[in-house]
Amino acid sequence: MNRLLICVDVDGVCANLHPVWLRRYAEITGRLVRPEDIRSWDFGGLQLDKRILFGILDEPNLYDEVKEVEDAYMGVKCLRLMGHRVVFCTSSTPAGATSKMFWLAEHGFIKGRGLNVWRDVVICHDKSLLYGDVLVDDHAGNLETFRGKAKILFDQPHNRSLVEKGFVRLYGWHDVVNYILRLGG
């Protein structure tokens, strides 16, 4: 069995951020936007106030209400039990990084204290900088620039209009674990 370095995005892959993020946007603006209304990361056609939308990502308590993507913890646990290293690679605002780290720790994705808690976390917007064997992400742009051997698009409403090119679309953590098992893991 080959030990793989598996890079896993957080938002939309492990943390179900969109419902909380969009609810807070609605509370501020009075405009209801559902996760299924978003068809791309540029929020095309929705005419949202992006200053407010992205400002919410700086709220220190944003992740307090965020739920886990179904079976994410068990999927990550299975990959680790198979002998793989799982590293969380996520884009974040400086203010949001701490909140996201606490969320990962509270949900059991990362363990440790002090600097050790950062051992399996990489904060980066440009995922072409990552070194790894596999990337699991819900943003196709990140997959297009990743240089590893396997690129997995984690299915979400905001990426369903995309045509897969050079990556495979999977529909949940059960599919991710099975796919990596077939890779030789």
Give the gist of this structure:
31% of the residues lie in helices and 16% in strands.
Characterize the structure shown.
The chain is an alpha/beta fold and 185 residues long. The chain has 2 domains: 5-16 and 66-182, 3-Layer(aba) Sandwich (Rossmann fold), CATH 3.40.50; 17-64, no CATH class. It contains 6 helices and 8 strands. The chain has helices spanning 17-29, 50-55, 72-81, 94-106, 140-145, 173-182; strands spanning 5-8, 15-16, 67-68, 85-90, 121-123, 134-137, 150-154, 168-170. The strands form 2 sheets. A 6-stranded parallel β-sheet has the order 5-4-1-6-7-8. Strand 4 (85-90), helix 4 and strand 5 (121-123) form a beta-alpha-beta unit. Helix 3 runs parallel beside helix 6 (173-182). The relative contact order is 0.21.
Q: What is the topological layout?
A:
Elements: E1 5-8, E2 15-16, H1 17-29, H2 50-55, E3 67-68, H3 72-81, E4 85-90, H4 94-106, E5 121-123, E6 134-137, H5 140-145, E7 150-154, E8 168-170, H6 173-182
Parallel strand pairs: 1-4, 1-6, 4-5, 6-7, 7-8
Antiparallel strand pairs: 2-3
Helix pairs in contact: 3-6
